[in-house]
Write a structure and sequence with these properties.
17 helices; five-stranded parallel beta sheet; four-stranded parallel beta sheet
Length: 361
C-alpha cells in the first residue's frame, strides 16, 4: 500500500484479482477496447494518438525526450485524473486502488504517484496486463472437470444451463460471455461481441470462480461462438468431455426458436439466411425467405432446422453422450429433473454465471 511519496506495493495476478478495491486500467482506449481485465475502468494516461507520439519520441530521441513529451500531454489532465481517482476511492473506503498498464511500468507508476499525492493507497499489478494475459492463457491449459450440455437447435440448452446455475451447479455460459448464440442468426438482438482476446479474459475469470467445482457445465459449441474463438486449451478439453444430450419434440423446438427470433428484425433475419444460402440449398433458402417476408416464423425456422440438425449430429458424434428426453418441461422443471436423477451435480449455491443470457437455444 502507498502513503504519499511511498513506493506502492506490487503484487502478482492472483493477489491482484483477489482485491476488492477499484480496478483501474491506465492504458490507451484502443488497448483497453482490445481486451482488459473484466470489471476494470479505463483511465488512460494517454489517448491513442498521445501513446503513439510518446512511443515514437522514445524510439527516435530516447527516454528523457519521451518523458517530457508525456508530461506535456498529461499535465493539463492531472486535476481531472486526480478527481476521478479520488471519487473511485471514496466509493470503496479502506480499499486500495488497483492499477495496471501494459507491462506494469511507467504509466501505472505515474498514476500511482498521482494517487499517492492524494494519500490514496495503491496496489500495482506486477507485469501489468501482459502478466494477466499470460495467466489467463495458462489457466486454459490446466485440467478442468468439464461436462457438456448438448442438444439440437431449439432444445433450450442455454435456458437450462442458467436454471442449473441458479440451483448451485457450476456453469460457464459460453454464449452469454460471447454475446452470441452460435449460429448465423446468433448475434441478432444482442450487444456487440467482444474481441476474441477479451472473450478469453472473461472466460478465464469465469473458470477461476469455479476452481473448486467437481463438475463444470458448458454448452456443446463449435470452436467459435460468432467471431469469438474458444481458447485452444479449453477447446481440446471440451472435445474430450462427456456430453448430456437434451432431446425435445420438433414442435417444442420450433416454438422455442419462434420465441427467440420472431421478435427480431425481418431484414436482419433475411440477411442471416442469405449468409448460409449455399449450405441451405436454393429451395430451402427461397422457402425460408418467403416465410420471413410474410412473417411466418414457424415455417422459416422449419427450413433451417434440417441443416442445423445435420451439423449438430455430426459434431455430437465425436462425444460420448447420454440422451435425456425432456419433452415440454420448462427450464426450471428440467433442471430439477436432471439433479434428481443425478445426471448433474450441484456444487455450492452460486449466482448466475458471468455473461448469462445470450439466448436460450
Amino acid at each position: 500500500m502507498a502513503d504519499s511519496g511511498a513506493t506502492p506495493e506490487r503484487v502478482a495476478v492472483e493477489a491482484f484479482l483477489a482485491g476488492a478495491g477499484p480496478l483501474v486500467d491506465v492504458r490507451s482506449p484502443a488497448e483497453f477496447a482490445q481486451g482488459h481485465i473484466p470489471g476494470a475502468r479505463n483511465l488512460p494516461l494517454f489517448d491513442d494518438a498521445g501513446r503513439a507520439a510518446v512511443g515514437t519520441t522514445y524510439k527516435q530521441q530516447g527516454r528523457q525526450a519521451a518523458v517530457l513529451c508525456g508530461l506535456a500531454l498529461v499535465g493539463p489532465r492531472l486535476e481531472a485524473m486526480a478527481a476521478q481517482l479520488a471519487g473511485w476511492a471514496a466509493a470503496s473506503p479502506g480499499q486500495p486502488l488497483r492499477l495496471l498498464c501494459w507491462r506494469g511500468g511507467m504509466r501505472s507508476a505515474s498514476v500511482a504517484w498521482l494517487a499517492g499525492q492524494l494519500d490514496l493507497p495503491v496496489l500495482l499489478l506486477e507485469g501489468g496486463y501482459k502478466a494477466y494475459r499470460r495467466w489467463a492463457l495458462e489457466l486454459f491449459e490446466q485440467p478442468w472437470p468439464l461436462r457438456l450440455l448438448g442438444g439440437r437447435t431449439g432444445t433450450g440448452k442455454t435456458d437450462l444451463l442458467l436454471a442449473l446455475a441458479a440451483r448451485g451447479v457450476a456453469v460457464v455460459d459460453l454464449e452469454g460471455l460471447a454475446h452470441h448464440r452460435g449460429s448465423s442468426f446468433g448475434g441478432l438482438g444482442l450487444p456487440p461481441q467482444p474481441s476474441s482476446e477479451h472473450y478469453e479474459n472473461r472466460l478465464a475469470l469465469a473458470l477461476r470462480r469455479l476452481a473448486a467445482a467437481e463438475q463444470i457445465w458448458l454448452e456443446a459449441e463449435s470452436a467459435q461462438v460468432g467471431r469469438c474463438r474458444i481458447p485452444a486449451g479449453l477447446w481440446r478439453q471440451m472435445q474430450a468431455a462427456p456430453a448430456l444430450e437434451v432431446q425435445r419434440p420438433l414442435e417444442q423446438r420450433l416454438a422455442q426458436l419462434v420465441r427467440i427470433y420472431g421478435v427480431q428484425d425481418p431484414g436482419q433475419l433475411a440477411e442471416a439466411t442469405r449468409r448460409i444460402a449455399r449450405r441451405l440449398g436454393p429451395q430451402r433458402t427461397a422457402a425460408a425467405l418467403e416465410a420471413i417476408a410474410v412473417r411466418d416464423w414457424t415455417a422459416a425456422c422449419r427450413q433451417m432446422l434440417d441443416y442445423y440438425d445435420r451439423c449438430y449430429d455430426h459434431d455430437l458424434s465425436a462425444h460420448a453422450s447420454e440422451p435425456v428426453e425432456l419433452g415440454e418441461l420448462g427450464a426450471e422443471a428440467a433442471a430439477a429433473l436432471l439433479l434428481e436423477r443425478g445426471l448433474v451435480k450441484a456444487a455450492a449455491p452460486l449466482s448466475p454465471p458471468a455473461g448469462a443470457g445470450a439466448g436460450g437455444r
